[in-house]
Amino acid sequence: MTSNVKSPHAHMNKLSGKTKFIEDMNLPGQLIGGILRSPHPHANIVRIDTTKAKAIDGVVAVITAADVPHPPFGPTRFKDWNILAEERVLFIGDEVAAVAAESKAALEAALEAIEVEYEVLPAIFETEDAMLEDAPVLHSSAPDNRPMHLQLERGDVKVGKEKAAVVRGGTYVINPIYQGHLEPIAAIASWSEEDGVTLWAGSHIPYLARETYAAAFGLPEDKVRIIIPPIGGSFGAKYVLKMHLIACALSKAAARPVKIVLNRTEDMISAHPRVPLKMEVEIGADEEGRFVYKDATVYANAGARIYWSPNIVATACTRPDGVYHFQNVRAEGHLCYTNISPTTCMRGFGNAEMLFAVESIIDELAEALEMDPSEIRMKNIVREKDVTIHGYQLDSCKLDQCIEKVKEISGWERKKDLPPNRGLGMALGNHVSGFRGIDPRFEGSTAVITLSSAGELIVQTGEIELGQGMTQTYATIAAKELGISADQILVKSGDTERNPFGIGTLASRSTVMGGNAVHLAAKEVKRKMLELVKETTGEDGVFCYEGIQVNDRVLTLEELAASYRGLHAGDQLTVRATYSPDTDRPDKTYYGHPSPNYPFTAHVAEVEVDPDTGRVKLVGYWAVHDSGTIINEVGAKSQVYGAVAQGIGWVTMEELKVKEGRVQNPTIMDYRMPGAADIPPIEIAFIDGSDPHGPFGAKSVGEVAIDPVPGAIANAIAQAIGKRGRALPLNPEAVWRLANDYE
Amino acid sequence: MTSNVKSPHAHMNKLSGKTKFIEDMNLPGQLIGGILRSPHPHANIVRIDTTKAKAIDGVVAVITAADVPHPPFGPTRFKDWNILAEERVLFIGDEVAAVAAESKAALEAALEAIEVEYEVLPAIFETEDAMLEDAPVLHSSAPDNRPMHLQLERGDVKVGKEKAAVVRGGTYVINPIYQGHLEPIAAIASWSEEDGVTLWAGSHIPYLARETYAAAFGLPEDKVRIIIPPIGGSFGAKYVLKMHLIACALSKAAARPVKIVLNRTEDMISAHPRVPLKMEVEIGADEEGRFVYKDATVYANAGARIYWSPNIVATACTRPDGVYHFQNVRAEGHLCYTNISPTTCMRGFGNAEMLFAVESIIDELAEALEMDPSEIRMKNIVREKDVTIHGYQLDSCKLDQCIEKVKEISGWERKKDLPPNRGLGMALGNHVSGFRGIDPRFEGSTAVITLSSAGELIVQTGEIELGQGMTQTYATIAAKELGISADQILVKSGDTERNPFGIGTLASRSTVMGGNAVHLAAKEVKRKMLELVKETTGEDGVFCYEGIQVNDRVLTLEELAASYRGLHAGDQLTVRATYSPDTDRPDKTYYGHPSPNYPFTAHVAEVEVDPDTGRVKLVGYWAVHDSGTIINEVGAKSQVYGAVAQGIGWVTMEELKVKEGRVQNPTIMDYRMPGAADIPPIEIAFIDGSDPHGPFGAKSVGEVAIDPVPGAIANAIAQAIGKRGRALPLNPEAVWRLANDYE
Questions:
Q1: How far apart (Å, rounded) are the C-alpha atoms in residues B203 and B201?
Q2: Residue A206 is part of which domain span?
Q3: What ipTM, to 2 d.p.?
Q4: CB < 8 Å to B195, chain A
Q5: Local structure of residue B149 (DSSP, 8 states)
């Protein structure tokens, strides 16, 4: 039931509908679980009575705060979580009680029969309101509702301002959007007094989730086992979730396995959209178009609890400074608790958001200075061997070539002569390949390779396949090192009890972190296998497609496995290798070199705006990437296609409309995401180049591919309508209003 | 649910009734399974109709041969097994069909409702009959019903016979006995199309069982997972069992977990007693009491199928020649198929059986030569540094000291002046500590030690705890090497998917094979931990009870674990070590040095025989052992106590009475085993001494402790009644008949 996939099949199975997701799984004796949620954005729980619910035929367990432990815990240092709301509810959708029942009918009847008396409290929804003197306090640990307040300055922005010939900027607003995973959020928990709890859930950071959940229940970590079935998309939504804990608590109470599948509405109201941001950003340039400062203030709405929003604020405040030399930068970040659903990660993780502002402003500066947008960019970008203002060491950087190439393939020169209502927009992006600081204790990855008796090389990793093609990439890395067919390699992951520790799939880390570990292990297994051939045949062998060539014959991996077992008491050849990157945990001022390498990209979008409706149609898209050596080209291109499509939805369509804490459009019908007809032809190119720190020279691609999308599209729209939109989404209504100066 | 025990608790839990055996376990959705068995010793199956059985309410699956695969398979090279009888049944109790049902009532009704039409065939029950020209053939692979016919000679027995001044011998008969495990044979199987089958069963050689079961179902090995819950005794009965396969087949058919628990009668008729032997043995001695030859012919009744009876025959034919220098030996072994339940291993494994004959004959030789039984033994025993006639290299052997010591503590000199009806008998024994040849491919063991985040050293092994105290022994070995408290060590085993490969617990191999592997791994983990201390503190550390002392402070294992994880990307310190013994697989003539070392022992039994009833009362028992360094004294003594008690039952009480293939006494009430009142005070001494090949100098103790028991008791009885009993059991009727010359 884990994601032990021979790499190519995984995606085929998804495409053909054969993949079994959690919803398709059933354990013997399994109950159906459901959650009673708060209808109020902020209220005291005065009374809960579950008597009637418990009496319903087919209801096996009904739990409330009284039935679960309440230690301080949470996935980050802000330990503001609970399993079920103890005294207060903090948002519409907050988890108040839960039921496990034999049937859906019994479950629904029981959820209705739970009596809850609330005392409604004043609520806050916007960051401005959260910071008011007399605002209600959501968590006593943050009396000002600001769990995080970041301030940093490098260089001297005052000096930069004095040098500036042109200044542009404004307030940029990032819409709360739904990650839009096709597979709804689901989990099965099976609790046993003896063995602890086993949780089947789509977490892509299961080892950190295990630590969080163990703390929640006061269990030792080895009594929590997380198994990851195939994941049908996450994009940041499925890291660590309270519904996982509730499934565990229900299974404990019922002493039977419990499955919870959120329906799409629950998923959309409770499962943590992209952090909404308000960003006041200003960039100044001298007469020659050299940037002299950047000044940014970010207001981030964390919602009712902390997931990874602090890291997103820090990323927004720093990461784009690794694309351009701004010379002097100042950033301030305010993260506020409010009475909306907790907000969290989504592909791009703060960087895509701030780049939307930065790339918009740069186009305005170019216009003011009468420079081509590509020219002002080329003048200011970071270059190979640079150390950026926050300390990133760029041992590879082909951003200049990305710009040249994207101009070439997009026919950039057309920009000057476009027909009316058309626009071509450019934007750049960077990212990390893992980030030293996600886990304050360590970074890196471990791979274990075993030569099975059947002659397969089994690669075990703690990193997680969530559709990004990790298993194919790891199989390719091992096969490339050994010089054998990737068909003989089986990548296994997704079980905290069987596989080695991994931080998991976030911060675009899987190719470089896990990939380097796999590469190290493959080198060691190669050495040991050649040693074995020498020991058993007296000859030197050479790897070939099917195995190891020794003189005139090929020893198959199966034969080698039998030889090894014969010499080693039946044990299988097993190697374990750890990759620990030579990076820094950023210091208190956010300075440091946190990633082994940094991918770069330049995108161009071409749009046509319908002047009557404001509808933006993408007519072309070009993406050129410096992600070092491309190991898995199909996978890498798929990441770019997907990210661009996702970006198009984000910029031109999507928005969770939240009114007084209530999501107004919590269905896929009311929340429009792009379909195939919305996506233009996307042309992708990779710049040749190898980074010294990646496996075979690779850098990441998963998130950098979305980073420039908002900026590129916004810049294209600005040309098409002659007006600048600073709030996402730039949907038909917004674009029409802008174009027609209709506030 | 696996046997992950902090060592001291395991036995306490058994004593206090807290241990959960398979019968106490239940999986969600589990069905009850049962087996329909043949009522005939040999018959063709003409017709099976399961229609009525399937129609019974609550019956989920009914399977026959038609529902299971029929590849050639079996646990040894004699691949004569099936999952369910295909065309013929071969013994009373042979498995014909099986049912999985919701309730016991439904199960029993279904078993009764299965219609089977048999054509009864002529049957054979004794080895003599099996070898007759016109005997019915049980397996076409052995047209003479003799799957094995062993012949060996070393030296020249003819020359020995010419030299002999005295010859004694006769025909010795070994009773079929039940291993008498308290926990009945049970299994739970859970089959999933995706993951294969998980089997909870008490096998103590689960990795070899996995290979056998995978072959039976045509699955790859990694689709068969065997988990070993605490085992309530086995003594050889629970290695690999057809009922395990039937549980798997039922679970597959029912698509739900299935539990089968044999009732005691099923257990006793179908679950493979000790191989009954008939042994014609003759030993000659010269005038000075030096043995000049031994000539033995063994007839072994394998029953209907092969488990490990061939190995038992080979052991009977060779192993006792490692106690004495017989100078010239000849042995012939006939293993025959018959229509009784397959017979298999029990503690002592052929050696205890042949030693019964040898030790009986030696006493007769001593009498003929007017020597003290201890004197003739001392004159002929093997000594340290000897190489025995079959090639065993005795790098340690303190058998002479065992004899001296047992004489001293038993007051041997009393033998001459015992009151009437009393007897003192001596016997010697040897054994192996693992046997190169159980698995033709390899011998040895692998241990993996992990420093957990909680600061425990987790020792993983593929060997199995079945009550012999292995976990305590391994924890002690690791603690002794490291110099820390054994409380910080957790030994885990019993899951083929999680733990490294191990051949398992048989041939008295766990202390030396697994123990050496644990010792090697402990040395490596010690080196790595001290290296870590040096790396992190710059100082040299020294292990102490609680952790590692560095200058004035103690670094706990938890602190070390955190340091290690910090430096290694979150991975836990893990070492893997394999012990491969420097031994030989015996050649075709059974020559070789198959074990790293050999334990020795001398026992003395004192009996009083009631002349009116023939009842033998043990009044005293003394056991002196050379098992090298004793690592776990409580465990080692427990092995001796248990083996002597078991031997007393074997020799004086127990016998499965089989008449025309039908067990006449298949209940614990009718099959009397010893109780506390039957066991005399047992005095145990261990000779100091260290063997160069054992962990800290240890040798095995589990089986050597039963090897001399039959001979010692038989010799004591012979003195008490003045007659020699050559057929076991020497129960009251047999002894009374002997004493009264009543045939």
A1: 6
A2: 7-121+185-261
A3: 0.88
A4: 1
A5: E
